[in-house]
């Protein structure tokens, strides 16, 4: 039996709710062998991020080469990349190793406000990373930061999605979590011709730490198993909906989404 393998290129969350910890739990839950290339260590808990310690880009490159030379992944996701140097190094290795099923979660700022991608790295994401991506999964603030489009209504979401596709992402998923609708949290998948809606209900909870990480990891898991982007995105939406519904009230702050819901 072929074992599907997925790789996350992301930061560590010591509190276990987001970052590589969320990604590896998601891979495991979805029946995919999980691997990780660490970009940064964060000192973090449910109350927030207390410290960020990025790795040298050589350390990221070497991890990717070690995985690539022995355990080539069937799909890859990127999360917190922190600096322009790490973004460019990761994108360069993804291209050199020929990895095609790449999900880019353009993580920028933690819910508590801490910087997970330096401002000067945003252009590196556009110039280096999106060209090697298959899917990009911005929330609304991230889509605005990457495109300069102020998102107010559907037509501006479409404009942002078009620009992100022009930068090189084959599929763009604009997540609805920040769109202010009190009842729904619908995500929109743009494939170049139009939007397909992934419908979701808004769940009233403050325990949503790691939501974006878990969603993009679930898409990568589906792709690793051979699903199409639309199939993987649909299943990832169901997975994240359940993970938020059953989120964990642990710690004194914002608890994590629950990958084993
Ligand atoms: N910490 C790390 C290492 C992450 O990769 C991410 C998410 O992308 C976060 C924190 C953000 O978590 P939150 O869902 O609380 O914004």
UniProtKB/TrEMBL annotation:
<dbReference type="InterPro" id="IPR013749">
    <property type="entry name" value="PM/HMP-P_kinase-1"/>
</dbReference>
<keyword id="KW-0808">Transferase</keyword>
<comment type="similarity">
    <text>Belongs to the ThiD family.</text>
</comment>
<comment type="pathway">
    <text>Cofactor biosynthesis; thiamine diphosphate biosynthesis; 4-amino-2-methyl-5-diphosphomethylpyrimidine from 5-amino-1-(5-phospho-D-ribosyl)imidazole: step 2/3.</text>
</comment>
<dbReference type="GO" id="GO:0008972">
    <property type="term" value="F:phosphomethylpyrimidine kinase activity"/>
</dbReference>
<dbReference type="Pfam" id="PF08543">
    <property type="entry name" value="Phos_pyr_kin"/>
</dbReference>
<dbReference type="InterPro" id="IPR029056">
    <property type="entry name" value="Ribokinase-like"/>
</dbReference>
<dbReference type="GO" id="GO:0008902">
    <property type="term" value="F:hydroxymethylpyrimidine kinase activity"/>
</dbReference>
<keyword id="KW-0784">Thiamine biosynthesis</keyword>
<dbReference type="InterPro" id="IPR004399">
    <property type="entry name" value="HMP/HMP-P_kinase_dom"/>
</dbReference>
<protein>
    <recommendedName>
        <fullName>Hydroxymethylpyrimidine/phosphomethylpyrimidine kinase</fullName>
        <ecNumber>2.7.1.49</ecNumber>
        <ecNumber>2.7.4.7</ecNumber>
    </recommendedName>
</protein>
<comment type="pathway">
    <text>Cofactor biosynthesis; thiamine diphosphate biosynthesis; 4-amino-2-methyl-5-diphosphomethylpyrimidine from 5-amino-1-(5-phospho-D-ribosyl)imidazole: step 3/3.</text>
</comment>
<feature type="domain" description="Pyridoxamine kinase/Phosphomethylpyrimidine kinase">
    <location>
        <begin position="13"/>
        <end position="258"/>
    </location>
</feature>
<keyword id="KW-0418">Kinase</keyword>
């Amino acid at each position: 039996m072929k074992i599907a393998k997925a790789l996350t290129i992301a930061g560590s969350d010591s509190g276990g709710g987001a970052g590589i910890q969320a990604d590896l739990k998601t891979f495991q839950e979805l029946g995919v062998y999980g691997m990780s290339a660490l970009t940064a260590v964060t000192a973090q808990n449910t109350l927030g991020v207390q410290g960020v310690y990025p790795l040298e880009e050589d350390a990221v490159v070497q991890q990717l080469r070690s995985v690539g030379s022995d355990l080539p992944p069937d799909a890859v996701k990127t999360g917190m990349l922190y600096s322009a140097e790490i973004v460019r190094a990761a994108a360069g290795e993804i291209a050199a190793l020929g990895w095609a099923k790449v999900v880019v979660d353009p993580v920028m700022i933690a819910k508590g406000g801490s910087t997970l991608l330096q401002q000067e790295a945003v252009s590196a994401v556009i110039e280096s990373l999106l060209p090697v991506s298959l899917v990009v999964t911005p929330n609304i603030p991230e889509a605005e930061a990457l495109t300069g489009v102020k998102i107010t209504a559907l037509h501006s979401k479409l404009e942002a999605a078009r620009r992100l596709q022009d930068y090189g992402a084959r599929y763009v998923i604009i997540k609805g979590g920040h769109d202010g609708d009190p009842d729904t949290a619908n995500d929109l998948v743009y494939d170049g011709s139009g939007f397909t809606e992934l419908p979701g209900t808004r769940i009233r909870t403050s325990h949503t730490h790691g939501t974006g990480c878990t969603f993009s990891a679930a898409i990568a898991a589906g792709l690793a198993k051979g699903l199409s982007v639309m199939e993987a995105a649909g299943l990832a939406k169901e997975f994240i909906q359940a993970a938020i519904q059953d989120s964990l009230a642990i710690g004194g702050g914002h608890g994590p989404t629950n990958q084993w819901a």
